[in-house]
Amino acid sequence: MNTVLITGCSSGFGLDIAKHFLNQGWKVVATMRTPNESVLPASENLRILPLDVRSDESVRQAIEAAGPIDVLVNNAGIGWLSALEGTPIDVARDIFETNTIGTMRTMQAVLPQFRERRSGTIVNVTSTVTVKPLPLLSVYTASKSAVNAFTESVAIELEPFGIRVRIVLPGLAPETSFGKNAFGRMEEEGGFPDAYADYINATVAQMRQHSGPITKSTDVAEAVWRAATDPSCPMKLPAGADAVAAADWES
After folding, report:
1. Is 176:13 a contact under the CB 8 Å cutoff?
2. SS3 114
3. pTM over 0.85
4. Per residue in 39-69, pLDDT tens?
5. Who's near 75: CB < 8 A, 6+ residues apart?
6. What is the number of domains present in the chain?
7. In what helix (H) or strand (E) does residue 49 lie, and over which residues does it extend?
8. Which CATH number covers residue 157?
9. In which domain, by residue range, is 149 found?
10. Residue 34 DSSP one-character state
11. Which one of the listed residues 21, 26, 114, 140 is annotated catalytic?
């Protein structure tokens, strides 16, 4: 029976990814910064472990406790919605530490076992804002674009060891807490510059009134499943109707 370790499973994409792999009969190691066993159905194939991707020691302990795994899904991440001018550098640094360095950190932790076995798959979840930019998301977009870039590069160096690396790019997912958390964090950090107030309020209102195609968490779970199990899938895999429409994709 195959085993997958997924980061950021307390809600949103990570939660549905974990459920999907469980439904497919896999062993699932669902990790969360603060473990909450109530969010997932009890199963003999499920383990819930603490993991903070910002901490070397937390990652080391989780990977050690998980034992051999076949697939790593890097889903954990944080958002930020504000003008660049009003973004504290400490906030930008924390976003990169979580979204970018955190992904590198977990990959480094599992690569020795994958390399020794000459098998294993890594799926990194980023965003379609990296191919179709949106305003007020410049720092978040930069952190996820960096993941796209280093994933494509590391995929080449890992191929000789039988290790596959893929990217899943979700679109707008209003059913998740991403937007609420991103906007809420911005307010906690002191809000936005007065000069941008009208523009930001209008842009946020427009985002909230979005009526076009969207991405559901189940779309992301299905895309991650394909990326993890289908060797023929492309390097970048869109997840959600709006993600597919965002750019021309390799089929």
Report:
1. yes
2. helix
3. yes
4. 999 999 999 999 999 999 999 999 999 999 9
5. 6, 7, 8, 9, 13, 14, 17, 125, 224
6. 1
7. strand 46-50
8. 3.40.50.720
9. 3-78+90-174+214-246
10. S
11. 140
200 domain-assigned? no
Asked if residue 14 lies in contact with residue 80, where contact means CB atoms within 8 angstroms, the answer is no
The pair of three-digit structure tokens given for residue 18, joined into one six-digit string = 């974990």
Say which residues have a Cβ less than 8 Å from residue 54's Cβ, sequence separation at least 6: 94, 97, 98, 101, 102
Tokens of 35: 């473990």
Residues 6+ apart with CB under 8 A from 165: 121, 122, 123, 124, 151, 154, 155, 158
CB 91 within 8 A of CB 98: no
Q: Which two tokens stand for residue 226?
A: 């394909």
- C-alpha to C-alpha distance for 72 and 239, rounded to whole angstroms: 18
Helix (H, G, I), strand (E, B) or coil at 74: strand
pLDDT tens digits along 13-42: 999 999 999 999 999 999 999 999 889 999
Listing from the earlier edge strand, what are the strands of the sheet with 46-50? Answer: 46-50, 27-32, 3-6, 71-74, 120-125, 163-170, 236-239
196 is catalytic: no
